[in-house]
Each structure stands twice: as C-alpha cells, then as structure tokens.
TrEMBL record:
Species lineage: Bacteria, Pseudomonadati, Planctomycetota, Planctomycetia, Gemmatales
Alphabetized SMART domains for the sequence: Cation_ATPase_N
The name this protein goes by in its record: P-type Ca(2+) transporter
Location of the Cation-transporting P-type ATPase N-terminal domain: 2-72
InterPro entries cross-referenced by the UniProt entry: ATPase_P-typ_cation-transptr_C, ATPase_P-typ_cation-transptr_N, ATPase_P-typ_cyto_dom_N, ATPase_P-typ_P_site, ATPase_P-typ_TM_dom_sf, ATPase_P-typ_transduc_dom_A_sf, ATPase_P-type_domA, HAD-like_sf
Sorted UniProt keywords: ATP-binding, Calcium, Calcium transport, Ion transport, Magnesium, Membrane, Metal-binding, Nucleotide-binding, Translocase, Transmembrane, Transmembrane helix, Transport
EC numbers for this chain: 7.2.2.10
Topology class, membrane: Multi-pass membrane protein
Subcellular locations according to the entry: Endomembrane system
Length: 976
C-alpha cells in the first residue's frame, strides 16, 4: 500500500482538493483501472464434456454401444469381436479413478468409430447411430442451456460489484462509479458505504469499518486520521481501509492508494485460480469468492422438481422393466426368440432380446423427465431478464421464484411510494413569514452532509434527499451553502439517528459554541422552552404559541407534507476539546430555542395507487413503514388508497408497547406504521413469518439490513440505498418504485405457472407413452414405435416443449389469484385431473388405432412396403401411427398453455411468436421425417388426404381439453 507522502509527491493537492482532471488521466495511465480481473472459468470444452457424465447419457451410450456391437456381429464376426473387446476396455476404465471421468466421452468416440466401421462393411447400425444423435442433441441442448445461464450469471456478477461513491476532484464533490476511481482520488465515505478501493484515512469522525470480509471478525474496527501516522499497512492499522469492507458508523475521507488487482481483495482473488476446490469455509478466499460472485444455489422450486423428477424416474425404471418382461414373454410366445443354442436360433434370439433391451432403455429415456431442469433454467432466465427490464436487478436467482409467493409487502414511503423529489414548500417561523431565518439558514447549511452536484445543469443532490431539499431552498433564496460552510467551522457532528429522530452539529458562531439540531418537530418542541424570531428576538414558548405551532404542523401534515424542525442551544463554555463537543452533541436535549420548521413536499408516484389496487386484488397485503408523523402518514395512506374503513395505523411507540400475541391479532388490519424505527421493521417481518406469510421488505439504510436479510425477499433501493442495504438484499429496485415490486411479483408468478405448463405437458406424455408401451404386448401387439421415433418424441417432450411453454408471458388474470404458498404442491389437483384425463384420452385413441391396424387392417394396402421392424404392419401404417401420436402432442401443447378453467388454449396465442415458431419447426421436422425419413424411421410419405385426416382427427384433443378444463373447474378443483 502506497504511503500518503508517495501520493503527495505525484499529486500535490490530492489530500486537500483531490485530483485535477489532468491528474485523473495521468493516474489512469500510470496505475491502471479499478477493475478486477474476472475469476477463472472452466473452459467451454470441459463444460461440454461434463455433460456426458449425466446418468441418462451414460444409459444411452451403453445402449448405443451394445446395439452397434451386436449389429457388427451380425455383419462380421471379426469386427464384432473387435468392437466387443474395445467396449470391455472402455467399461473397465470405471475401475481406474484417473480415467473414470473420461469413460463416457471415450464410449461416445468408440461408438462413433464403430458406426463408421459398420457402415463400411455394409451393415450400418441405424438405431445405434440414432441413439448417438440423441446423445449429441441432449448434451448439446443441456450445454447450450448452461452456457446461456452462465452468461446471465456473468451479467449479474458484473452488476453486483458496481456501485457509486462520493469523489472530490478539483475541490468539488461529485458522484462517480466505483470502477472510475483511481490512485490518488480523495473519496468521502459515510455509514452504509462500501469502500471502492484500498486507501488511507485522512479525515475521520467516529469512523468504524466492518472488515469481516478479510478478517472473519464481525466486530467493527475504529479508523482514525492517518495523515501523521507511520506508513505501515494491514487490517489492524488504524488508518488503512480496504476494498469490499463496509462503513458501519461515522464519516471520513480516504485517499486511494491501490486499485483493481493491486488491492488486497484483488490479490486474494488471484489466488483463487491457484488453489483447489477444497477450501476452508471460513477462509478469506471463500469469503472473497462469495463477495465477487452470485452464488448458484438450487432454488426451493428446483429442489422440489428434482425430487419429483427422481420419483418419476423410479416409476419409469419400474415400468421399463415390466415392459421388457412383457416383450420377453410375448416374443417367446410369438416365436421371436427360442431357448435354443443352435447357431442361427441363438443369433436370432440374441438379436430379438437385444431389441427388447434397447426398447426398454429408450422407454427409460422417455420416462426420465430430464427436461424439468431445463424448464426451470429457461423460466428463471426469462423471469430475470423481464424483471431487469422492469427495473429490478436480481442479486439472487432464488428471489425470482420466491417473489411470486409474496403475500405481504412492507414498504418504505420515501422514494418507493413517493418520487423522492423533495422540495421545501414553506418555512414556518413565529412571525409566520416565509423569509429565511438566519438560524434556520445556518442549520440547513452546516448541520448537513449533503451536497449539490455543480456538474449537473439542474443541480442533483448528493446525499440525503431531505437535506438536499434544504440546500435547494437555500439556493432559491440566493444563499450559497458552500460559502456558509467555508465561513463556519463544524466542530463535531452526529448523523441522523433513527432512534432520536434528529441530527446534531456543534459549530462556533461569532466565537460562541452552538449546538444545532434538526429533526422531528414533536421531539424538538418537547425539549424547547423558547423560540427565536426571524429578527433574532428570543421569546418564551407559551402554551398559546405552542398550540399555534401544533395547529400549523397538523395542517401541513394533513396536506401530506413531512415537517422538519430546527432548534439550537448555546454552550456556556468553550474548552476547545473534542470530548466536550462529543458530549454536548450526544447529551439529552433540554432548554432548546425553537427556530421554526420546514414543510417539505414529496410528490406521490402517479402509478402507486393502481399498483396498490392490484396488490389488493392479488391477495397481497401492503404495509407502509415510515418515519413520518402519524398525520402525514395517514394523509398519504388515504391519498394512495392504502387505508380502508377498518385499517389500522400505529406509531412506533404503540407498536413497541404491544405484545407479540396482541400484534399478531392486529397485523392483518395494520396498514401504516408511523415514526417507525429499524427494529420495528425487523420485528414486524418476524411476526408475519410466524403467521406463515411470505414477506417482501424494502429498505435503503444500513439499519434496514437485518430486516432485509430476515425477509423472504429483501428489496433494496437502487438510487438512494446504501451499499450495506444492497448487500443484504435479494433484489435491488433500480428506480426505487413500488410499481416495480408489483411487476416483479407478476413475473415471479408467471415463472411458476410456466413450469406448471411444461410439467402438465410432460407428465401427460410420460403417462400415455408408458401405458401404451406396457399394454401393447399384453394385447398381442407392440406399439409400432421405433427407437428413433421414441427418441424424436422425447426431443419434442424434453427440449422444444420446455422452451416453448416456458416462454409464455404472464396472463392478465394472474394478479387476480391469491398467492401460492411456496411449500404448496406444484402439481395441483386440477393439473392432476387434466394430466390423467388427457393421458387416458391419448391411450384410448391410440389403442383403438393400434388394434384397428392390427386386426381390422385399418389403413392397410397390399402394395405398401412392409415395416422393417414390425412384421404385422406396413411402413404406411407405422407412419400414420407415429404421426398421429406426434400431432396429439403438438395439439396438447396448445392445451397446456391454459391453466385456468375459463381460458381457451388459443387465448393470446399470437402474442407468443416463440411458441408458434417452435411448434411450426416441430411440425416441419415431422413432415420431413415422414417424407424423407424412409428406411431410417421405418416410414413412407403420406398423402395430403391422410395428413388432413390426422391433423383434423388429433385436433379433437383440443375440444376434449376445453371440456375437461371446465369440468375440472366446475368440480371445485383449482390452483392449490
């Protein structure tokens, strides 16, 4: 870490005025940018190879290799023996840990080589090749999905480390992005800020830093002015601060000494690429990694779907074994294989049994819902993108899901319900004039940490918006607050205290020490016994005058204005001792001189009333938690439609005096908590959660962090929130708007419904395909699905449907539904009935077609080519059966768009071009398979009339779906 003297030699005025524009450019060239080198990522080829290690891929590869080897035996005993030997060698790799990870890839490479060999000897293994194509498709789609997800996480990580900081340059304070700070920059830090780079403290007042990121110790460490201290360094040094640590208390100025990779956190990050994955959970490396990246933990919905997929998979395995046994029994009875060891019989029997085995494997592949994880990934990515466009920066993906279950919103008022564009409406003094009183002017200018950015044409506020409103009022009255600050020294200052509801500054005016206070009028009036007129006359605060002030305050509060009072007192002595100033500022207030108050207007957001109405319709309670007095809070609550006839408004004092049981009885009707303290917000969140509510909380201050962490969804303010609040949150509201919360809830609910849509579609295919495959052999006929056809059906089910159904936009009626508890079963009773009903419809329709073709020779023509795999059918019959089943699924995709009993499958269909495009592509591929698949898919082209009959006939599932939805809805089954 560079010393202050080193920096002064390069930048002579950096401690007093910061860098000049020329010095900023020189520092950038000489010392570099304040950007960390991205953490190392696993190469793309390794990620792709890793996809081959999935259990379902291993099963497919084993089946493919087995099928190819048997086909080689049928074509050439020599090549069959070579293929079998090489296969055994690959299988043996499982016993060598070093090569075990490469086994699936080597298996795939060997299968590809053997397919080529089988082609060269004139005995191409079509089914083995088809399974390999399915493997490539499955791994490719999974890899692409993961790559897209990784890109989303990269965007999150890029935003996560971005923040703003106060920087002094050319003697003026301004706001710059943390990555645009350079060595030699002078920055101002306040409670709630995060240190943007390593540096040395050159000014400090009650400054305390949380260094737990680097040290693991949660206790904040005091920091002091290091201008004249020795040039040592380290977290223990009282003047050194480091990137990523947080200001817990006080204010100070820091001279930046190191940026980017040269910071301590940058050097730790570089070590992450040099160490293994087995790190101590409490090490600095792990803490820094968590700090620099968004953690990819499984969301509750992902865990829930994972358990469901495991259950379905086990049922699929059991069904596949039953199907294999059924085919084995049927094959024996039909003479397809014999208990004979004669050469020809043995080869024919082995070929038949292998066919049954491969069919069983493909049934397992169809049964295992590997599309479920993809559906969650697609839905989460879509929801995150949409929420970002709705000005909600998602810091944790889990929040995309959880926010859809929110049942209570505990919202701040300032900036969320209002625009946070505060302006002083008028100032009250005993003379009732609006002329600026000298003491109020001094209080507004000196008892403040806010600034106006001179770079902006319309001055923007740096710091507290309330203090900024006072500075703008001074500007309107031709008072230069900078000049006032230059002429009067602030000896000591305490920042706004949410407990005391005031801010205090000790200043010397005309050689006399004054304590200036601004804060809640009722607090300051209670501690005052005199008033000061705008002419400087000190008057007694009589009961009549007190009543007059209170009437004026009440009138302003009822006009939705927040009121801020000013008072002062004069010290009897001036020992010029900091401890005296500290005691003066922190002591109990009494005998104050009341100077007046300012009525400040903060316009209500124009869309907030409608957003609150939407919440009420959606079954979401809204509670406003504000520091304003009860009358102001009540007026705003009435103006935005928050308060109803039976609604309750409580003050912090009333809230704190009530027991938990009393509050639980009152919370359902409580709408506003006035004069609230941070601990009130935390207590409310905990009580609501004990009442089984899913709670979203907004916050902007350092003291809000506990409530943000405790909430199910913590929402930090992007414009006015401190870095500590943002770090504790799940979502950052980029525009601080309440309406953005409502839009996020809408998308969170849509995410849940999209996954339900896909689940309903997939389970319908699972159930119908397994029942068909299981019943066929017992009815004396095997469903004429080739391995390739089943794999194509699986592609439709697991890949295209996941993308199509999970891209649906939120339906308009979604915000008219009550919140779904996050522990609720994602398979509702209505969904279960629709799945079983539709699957039953498919099974009956397909069995009628199957039996008709088998026994009544339906669609049979003597001139048609016989099937290669199904002796009792022609290729034309196989093509009709296969196409009928696929078209049923395509029509059913439309059915699954609708989850509500009163919505048609065609509702808003043309508003989702993605769905239409994927459906059209699937139909196009199916037509190509039938027209050009020939021997590979065991089909032949169909006539236009046959296509028309299939399309019209299978469309009957739409009518069945419409009727089923209404029957289920009328029976009382609804979303649980």
């Amino acid at each position: 870490m560079r010393s202050i003297q080193e920096l002064l030699s390069d930048f002579p005025n950096c401690v007093s005025r910061g860098l000049s524009s020329e010095e900023v450019e020189r520092s950038k060239q000489q010392f570099g940018l304040n950007r960390l080198t991205p953490l190392p990522r696993e190469p793309l080829w390794k990620q792709f190879v890793g996809r081959f290690d999935e259990p379902i891929i291993r099963i497919l590869l084993a089946a493919s290799l087995l099928k190819i080897v048997v086909d080689l035996f049928l074509g050439s005993l020599l090549w069959g023996a070579i293929g079998f030997s090489l296969s055994l060698l690959v299988v043996a790799l499982v016993f060598f840990p070093r090569f075990k990870a490469l086994q699936p890839v080597l298996c795939f490479v060997l299968a590809a080589i053997l397919v080529l060999v089988s082609s060269l000897i004139g005995h191409l293994s079509f089914e083995g090749l088809a399974i390999m194509v399915a493997v490539i498709l499955a791994t490719g789609v999974a890899f692409f999905s993961e790559w897209k997800s990784a890109r989303e996480f990269d965007l999150l990580n890029a935003r996560k480390d971005s923040q703003k900081c106060r920087t002094i340059r050319n003697g003026e304070i301004g706001i710059v992005a943390s990555e645009d700070t350079y060595v030699g920059d002078l920055i101002e830090i306040h409670a709630g800020d995060e240190i943007p780079a390593d540096g040395r403290v050159v000014q400090a007042q009650d400054l305390r830093i949380n260094q737990s990121l680097l040290t693991g110790e949660s206790e904040p460490v005091a920091k002091i002015d290091g201008t004249y201290l020795e040039d040592a360094e380290g977290t223990e040094h009282p003047a050194c601060v480091y990137r990523g640590t947080q200001v817990v208390e006080g204010v100070g100025r820091v001279l930046i000494t190191d940026v980017g990779d040269m910071t301590m956190i940058g050097q730790i990050a570089r070590q992450l690429s040099l160490v293994g994955s087995s790190l101590d959970e409490e090490s600095a490396l792990v803490r820094v990694h968590r700090k620099l990246t968004v953690q990819k933990h499984q969301t509750p919905l992902q865990r829930k779907l994972s358990h469901l997929a495991d259950l379905i998979s086990k049922l699929g395995y059991a069904a596949a074994v039953l199907i294999f046994l059924a085919m084995l029994i049927r094959g024996y009875l039909m003479g397809e294989w014999k208990l004979s060891f004669a050469g020809a019989d043995l080869r024919a029997s082995l070929a038949a049994i292998l066919e049954y085995f491969v069919y069983m494997v493909v049934v397992v592949v169809v049964a295992v819902p590997e599309g479920l994880p993809m559906s969650v990934s697609v839905s989460l990515a879509l929801a995150m993108r949409k929420m970002t466009r709705a000005n909600c920066h998602v810091r944790q993906l889990m929040a995309c899901e959880t926010i859809g279950s929110v049942s209570v919103i505990c919202s701040d008022k300032t900036g969320t319900i209002t625009l946070n564009e505060m302006r002083v409406d008028h100032v009250w003094t005993p003379e009732s004039t609006n002329q600026p009183s000298e003491r109020i002017v001094l209080n507004a200018a000196l008892n403040s940490t806010a600034h106006l950015d001179p770079a902006a044409g319309d001055p923007s506020i740096i710091g507290s918006s309330t203090e900024g409103a006072l500075l703008l009022w001074l500007k309107e009255n031709q008072v230069d607050y900078r000049k006032v600050r230059e002429e009067h020294a602030v000896l000591y200052q305490t920042h706004f205290d949410s407990q005391r509801k005031d801010m205090r500054s000790v200043v010397r005016l005309e050689g006399v020490v004054h304590l200036m206070i601004k804060g809640a009028p009722e607090m300051l009036l209670a501690a005052s016994n005199r008033v000061r007129s705008s002419q400087g006359e000190i008057l007694e605060l009589t009961p009549a005058l007190m009543e007059r002030i209170e009437r004026s305050l009440l009138a302003d509060s009822q006009r939705s204005m927040r009121t801020l009072a000013f008072a002062h007192t004069i010290a009897n002595t001036d020992p010029s001792d900091e401890s005296f100033y500290r005691n003066l500022a922190s002591g109990e207030l009494s005998n104050l001189i009341f100077d007046g108050y300012a009525a400040i207007r903060d316009p209500i957001r124009p869309d907030v009333s409608e957003a609150i109405r939407q919440c009420r319709v959606a079954g979401i309670e809204v509670k406003m938690i504000t520091g304003d007095n009860p009358e102001t809070a009540r007026a705003i609550g009435q103006e935005i439609g928050l308060l109803e006839a039976e609604s309750l408004l409580m003050t912090s004092e009333q809230f704190g005096a009530a027991s938990n049981e009393q509050l639980k009885a009152q919370l359902p009707k409580l709408r506003i908590l006035a004069r609230a303290k941070p601990q009130d917000k935390l207590r409310m969140v905990r009580l609501l959660q004990e009442m089984q509510q899913v709670v979203a909380v907004t916050g902007d201050g350092t003291n809000d962090a506990p409530a943000l962490k405790q909430a199910d969804v913590g929402l930090a303010m992007g414009r006015t929130g401190t870095e500590v609040a943002k770090e504790a949150s799940n979502i950052v509201l980029l525009d601080d708007s309440f309406s953005s919360i409502v839009q996020s809830i809408h998308w969170g609910r849509a995410l849940y419904e999209n996954i339900q849509r896909f689940l309903q579609f997939q389970l319908t295919i699972n159930v119908s395909a397994l029942i068909l495959a299981l019943l066929g052999p017992f009815l004396g006929v095997k469903p004429p699905f080739t391995v390739l056809q089943l794999l194509w059906i699986n592609v439709i089910m697991d890949t295209f449907a996941a993308i199509a159904l999970c891209s649906e936009r939120p339906r308009p009626g979604l915000m008219k539904c009550k919140p779904i508890h996050r522990e609720a079963n994602i398979l509702t009773r209505a969904m279960r009935w629709r799945i079983l009903g539709t699957a039953g419809f498919f099974v009956v329709a397909m069995l009628i077609l199957l039996v008709g073709m088998k026994y009544d020779h339906l669609f049979y023509r003597s001139q048609d080519n016989p099937s290669n795999f199904f002796g009792e059918f022609t290729r034309r019959q196989v093509a009709i059966f296969f196409t009928t089943y696929v078209m049923f699924q395509l029509w059913n995709q439309l059915n699954c768009r609708s989850l509500a009993g009163n919505e048609s499958a065609f509702y808003r269909l043309f508003q989702n071009p993605f769905f239409l495009g994927i459906s059209a592509m699937t139909l196009g591929v199916q037509i190509s398979i039938i027209n050009y698949g020939g021997a590979i898919f065991d089909v032949e082209p169909l006539s236009g009339l046959e296509w028309l009959l299939i399309v019209v006939g299978t469309a009957s599932v739409l009518l069945f779906g419409e009727i089923l939805r209404r029957v289920v809805a009328s029976s009382g089954a609804s979303r649980e």
